[in-house]
Each structure stands twice: as C-alpha cells, then as structure tokens.
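Agenda item 2: nicotinamide-adenine-dinucleotide complex prediction
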Amino acid sequence: MDYRNFDINFGAEGKKVLVTGAAEGIGQATAIMFARKGADIICFDLKEAEVTRNEVEKCGREFLGITGDITKDEDIKNAVETAVQKFGKIDVLINCAGIGILEKVEDVSDDIWQKTFDVNLTGSFKMTREVGRRMLESGGGKIVCIASQAGVVALDKHVAYGCTKAGIIQMVKQCALEWARYNININAISPTVILTALGEMNWNNAAGEAFKQTIPARRFGYPEEVAACAVYLASDAASLINGANIVIDGGFTIG
Ligand SMILES: NC(=O)c1ccc[n+]([C@@H]2O[C@H](COP(=O)([O-])OP(=O)(O)OC[C@H]3O[C@@H](n4cnc5c(N)ncnc54)[C@H](O)[C@@H]3O)[C@@H](O)[C@H]2O)c1
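Presented output:
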C-alpha cells in the first residue's frame, strides 16, 4: 500500500468494527467514536448494550449486539461467526473487555488470579486468534488491545491485573511479528486511570487527588481520549505502526 494513500481525517466509513466490552466505559466510548467516523459496530459484552446501540444508531450506523462471555470458547466463536454472517467480514477488532480486582500479593486468591487471566489475557488472545483467522482470509485488518499502565510499571495491589496487561503487550508484539506481512496491524493502548462512570466513583476522592500528583500532567484521562487513539490506530494512516504499546498516561510511566 502507498503510505500516502490514507484519509487524513482518519475516517472509518463503512468499516465493520467489533468492540468487546462495549456496553460500558472505554469500550462504549470507542464504539461510539467509531460510529461517528462512519463505522458499523458489533458489540460483544456480558451485558446488553442499549445505550451504546442508541448512540451508534443516532449516528446512522448499524449495530449488532451480541451478549456473551469472553471466557467461553463457544461465545467467541458464535460472536465472530454471527458478525461475519451479517457484515461479510470484520475490519477492526478492539479488545476492551476486562476486569480488575486489586489485592496485595499475599491476599490474591487462586480464583482472583485465574479469573483475571481468563478474562483479560486468555479472552483477548482467543478473540484475537478467532478474528485474526478471518482477517488472514479476508486480506487483513486492524486490532487494538486495551492494556494498561499497570502492564508497564508496578503498582500497589496490581499483581494479577498488571501481569495480564503485560501479557497483552507481549501478545501484541508476537501477533504483529507473525501477521504484519499479511496486512494486519495489532497494537496496544495503555491508559492511566480513565474517568469512566466506575473510574469517577473510585477515583473522585482524596486517594485520586494524591495519585494525580504523581502524574506529570496532573490529571486522569477520559474515555474519548482512548477511543480517539483506537480510531487512529485502526486507520490506514497508522499502517506502519505494528506491535506498539501507546501509553496514554500523562507521562506517568516516563521515569
Ligand atoms: N478505566 C480505567 O481506569 C482503565 C485504565 C487502564 C486500562 N483499562 C482497561 O480498559 C478496559 C475497559 O475498562 P473500563 O474501565 O471501561 O471497564 P468497564 O468495567 O466500564 O467496562 C468493561 C466492560 O467489559 C465487559 N466484560 C467484563 N467481563 C467480560 C467477559 N467475561 N465477557 C465479555 N465482556 C466482559 C463488562 O460487562 C463491561 O461492559 C479494560 O480492559 C481495563 O482493564 C481501564
């Protein structure tokens, strides 16, 4: 592909974008941002995604909502098959479904460790593998995985979560190494605290104020800032970016 042959507005006109975890939070903002840029959306989430559906449809785009659990192989296969049946292909996958259960190392139970890995790392891998197989057949695509600053630096009580996110950052490098030649781009985004509804609830307090003082930019992020980066990474303008981890952290991981 000619590297100058891209839409300078990073449009996603007519693209078929599968977003996991799009019922809420960062995934929801990302699905809506893609719809604003002209994409049709497939949402895969444990929960119904009515708000996301309304917002996508307000943009005049199609919305396919699939409820499913990313820890279940049959749900992943069913979601990808249903999406391909409806839209013919998947152009973009955004792996956003994730959980975070924070405990001190000595208090992390086997269940917490396993559940965090099943959802965050194994779930993202299996969805990537399933969609990647289709992209190999259809001639390429873009994949963005939401990791975390906790996959880059150590943070108190983040051992299980941080290991899954570091694993995602490495998975992205591995997939890029093998798939770049097939016109597939796969990158990670690693945000700091993002003010989703849940983020507001957890961090709009004294501990949040103290944490902000450790961020060079002295603020947290907004879901739309992650969504905008995902839209860019999924655009042809970013076609030489592969296997990267883009931190959106106000400089937190610099030092
Ligand atoms: N919010 C932050 O501060 C922050 C910071 C860094 C990274 N992240 C990452 O961004 C992603 C989204 O986070 P968020 O804050 O928007 O979370 P959120 O809880 O608001 O949304 C996560 C979505 O994933 C879905 N989900 C959870 N488990 C699932 C499963 N087993 N199968 C299918 N769907 C499932 C949930 O139903 C929910 O809709 C996560 O991977 C998270 O680790 C978040």
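Discussion summary: The two ends are 37 Å apart (CA to CA).
Owner for follow-up: CH.
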